């Protein structure tokens, strides 16, 4: 019986994986694709889709201070003789990763960023011994090393390093920047984005724009960040996002690669389940599987579990769901129900727009982070409008859990409130419902102009909080009209519940009670109960709720 290779769980360094003879899915032809692409290449993919592994692969391929030929023998790129002879270990190469820059305040972030740049310079202290570098530049190198350099010097530090290496080797430089947007995202999450973005933008922009010492620049991240934009003016920039065909099979796994992996480890599996749980990613029209989940699936002998969503990195998504408008929550409700939504996608994400709850920016971020996938392009030619859906069963669980957690933060206990309703405790139900609105209306109606839109948040919570006991329908055809919310019990002895929400009208309603009475009348006249009865449910509770700002009137029948 042959000894199986170990799986590279927790490994993202190409050299250690190859030298330790671990299981490796050959993505080496990315090197050829990069060589044939523009001067600067930006690649955005969700977390844990192999970005760092591919970047370290390129580092070991290009760098001219090591002989790494043994790492590539037997891989697909080794067959490319012309590329091998011209590029393999032939270029001075700078590799820098920002993946660990997650500091809570701007002072610590800038300090950590300076530390990373200082550590980068420390790898090239031999430059201090060469006549190709002037005394003035050596002084600047020392100031970066001991972190006494001024702000402008740090903003130019990566560009300057490319120049020093060019002078030393008489050869243009390969620059690889991994997870470039992690500190930018963290600055947004922790409230210092506006203070930090220019400093970070200048470090990157100076290194990439009109840099005559640069042979090739490659950056990876989750998003393409725009801010007076970092990439504006970058010569011959090529961007590969989840919408692009460029490199669409180089990050994540194709079905053939999934099958090959599971077969290698002799695993019995249900193809349909693997598809349902870990497929769904559409990268430039290519069907892609989550590599992190597949590797963990193999490690756990084919056990289907939630792997990717439990690997952290989703605080920003949670925050956006928490603070989003009623319109966004309505669409999240539809997504959880398995529907598709449509949205324009702006590949140049402006984090500042997230504060304004700009729908386009929110759905763009959800797409780029892998929580949604695109189904098809539905806009006119040149219009970036797409149909979106939840990616797979893993990401659906994330949406459901996030909604429940957010609602639990506000002590919304749907089952307890419904129990009061079923027990006929109308006064207690009304009091608890009013308290719930007082505690949560800011979450579900940030505009403050249409508080009856609160019900979208209520529906969203019920869909995920009560789905085991009820079939939940909202704004669906019911009888002759459209009921706001219908709860159909899976246990036929339980009562069905119809909710109708009415906005108080100064022109047409005498008072809130009159508005609620009209809601109850609408339930009865339009025959909303027919849908519940079609499931064999006989007992039905009808609830009409009238809103005016935070004031509520409830009538139950």
TrEMBL record:
UniProt-listed SUPFAM superfamilies: P-loop containing nucleoside triphosphate hydrolases (SSF52540)
Stretches of the chain forming a coiled coil according to its record: none
Domain AAA-ATPase-like: residue ranges: 8-231
InterPro entries: AAA-ATPase-like_dom, P-loop_NTPase, PDDEXK_9
Protein name: AAA family ATPase
Species whose genome carries this gene: Marinitoga aeolica
């Amino acid at each position: 019986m042959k000894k199986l290779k170990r799986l590279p769980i927790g490994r993202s360094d190409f050299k250690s994986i190859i030298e330790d003879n671990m299981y490796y899915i050959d993505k080496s032809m990315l090197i050829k694709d990069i060589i044939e692409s523009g001067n600067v290449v930006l690649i955005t993919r969700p977390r844990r889709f192999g970005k760092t592994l591919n970047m370290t692969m390129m580092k070991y391929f290009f760098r001219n201070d090591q002989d790494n030929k043994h790492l590539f023998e037997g891989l697909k790129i080794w067959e490319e003789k012309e590329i091998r002879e011209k590029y393999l270990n032939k270029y001075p190469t700078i590799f820098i990763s920002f993946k660990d820059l997650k500091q809570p305040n701007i002072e610590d972030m800038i300090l950590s960023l300076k530390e990373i740049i200082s550590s980068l310079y420390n790898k090239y202290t031999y430059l201090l011994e060469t006549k190709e570098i002037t005394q003035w530049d050596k002084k600047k190198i020392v100031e970066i090393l001991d972190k006494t350099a001024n702000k402008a010097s740090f903003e130019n530090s990566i560009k300057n390093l490319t120049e020093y290496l060019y002078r030393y080797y008489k050869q243009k430089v390969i620059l690889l920047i991994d997870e470039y947007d992690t500190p930018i995202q963290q600055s947004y999450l922790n409230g210092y984005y506006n203070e930090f973005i220019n400093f970070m933008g200048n470090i990157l922009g100076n290194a990439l724009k009109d840099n005559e010492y640069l042979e090739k620049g490659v950056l990876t991240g989750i998003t393409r960040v725009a801010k007076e934009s970092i990439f504006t003016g970058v010569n011959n920039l090529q961007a590969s996002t989840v919408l692009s065909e460029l490199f669409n099979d180089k990050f994540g796994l194709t079905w053939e690669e999934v099958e090959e992996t599971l077969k290698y480890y002799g695993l019995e599996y249900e193809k349909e389940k693997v598809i349902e749980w870990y497929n769904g990613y559409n990268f430039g029209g290519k069907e892609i599987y989550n590599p992190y989940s597949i590797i963990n699936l193999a490690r756990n002998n084919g056990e289907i579990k939630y792997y990717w969503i439990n690997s952290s990195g989703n605080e920003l998504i949670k925050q956006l769901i928490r603070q989003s408008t009623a319109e966004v929550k309505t669409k999240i409700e539809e997504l959880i129900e398995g529907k598709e939504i449509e949205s324009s996608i702006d590949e140049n994400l402006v984090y500042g727009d997230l504060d304004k709850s700009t729908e386009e920016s929110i759905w763009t971020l959800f797409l780029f982070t892998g929580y949604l996938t695109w189904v098809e392009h539905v806009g006119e030619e040149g219009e970036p409008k797409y149909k979106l859906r939840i990616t797979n069963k893993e990401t659906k669980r994330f949406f459901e859990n996030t909604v429940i957690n957010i609602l639990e933060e506000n002590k919304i206990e749907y089952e307890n409130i419904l129990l009061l309703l079923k027990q006929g405790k109308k006064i207690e139900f009304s009091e608890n419902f009013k308290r719930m609105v007082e505690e949560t209306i800011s979450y579900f109606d940030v505009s403050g102009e249409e508080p009856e839109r609160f019900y979208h948040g209520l529906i969203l919570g019920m869909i995920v909080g009560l789905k085991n006991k009820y079939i939940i329908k909202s704004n669906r055809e019911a009888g002759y009209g459209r009921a706001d919310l219908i709860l159909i019990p899976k246990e036929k002895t339980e009562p069905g519940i119809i909710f109708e929400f009415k906005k108080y009208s100064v022109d047409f309603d005498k008072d809130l009670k009159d508005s609620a009475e009209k809601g109850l009348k609408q339930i009865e006249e339009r025959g909303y109960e027919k849908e519940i009865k079609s499931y064999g449910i006989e007992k039905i509770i009808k609830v009409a709720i009238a809103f005016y700002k935070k004031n509520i009137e409830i009538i139950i029948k």
